[in-house]
Structure formats: C-alpha cells, structure tokens
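Posting this for the archive.
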Amino acid sequence: PLPLTLMGSAIGLLLVFRVNNLYSRVTEARTLWGRAVYLCRQAAQTTATSLLFDFSMTKAKASNAHLAAEKVGLYLAAFAWELNSRLTGMGDGFAKTR
C-alpha cells in the first residue's frame, strides 16, 4: 500500500501542475483575444470619427466618406470573425467561415 500511496501523491501533484498550466494558458488566450477585439473596435471608432465628422468636406466627399467608413467597419468585423475561425480551427481559409 505504501508504493501506491506515493505514486498517487506524485500523480496528484503532476495533475495539479498541468491544470495550473492549462488555466494560465486559457487566461493568456482570453487576454490576447480581448486585446484584439479592443483594437478592432478602436480602429473602427477612429476611422468613423475621422471620416464622418470632418466638416470641411464637400457633400460628394462626405458621401464617399460614409461609404468608406462603412466598408472599413465591415472589413474589421470580417477580420475578427476570420481570426476567431482560424484560431478555433473552424475556418477553411477561403472566407467561408461558419
């Protein structure tokens, strides 16, 4: 019984170290994903602010600026979806995610 007790304790410690490693990796991944989402939102907000609230533009340029801001927002959203599918392994790499 003594060798089994020692082996059980060793396996228990090994399992604890592996679980702690897993938690730290999950926490790091969530932090990095949150940072990527934050940067996408910040880029969209900066683009929208600089393009949509420039009052020195003419009407024709303002219309083009609205279209450009919309396109940038769509590309940033597509980037976040594609990044998610690539990281989770659900994407096929040809923009046919989900």
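The mean pLDDT is 84. The longest helix spans residues 2-52.
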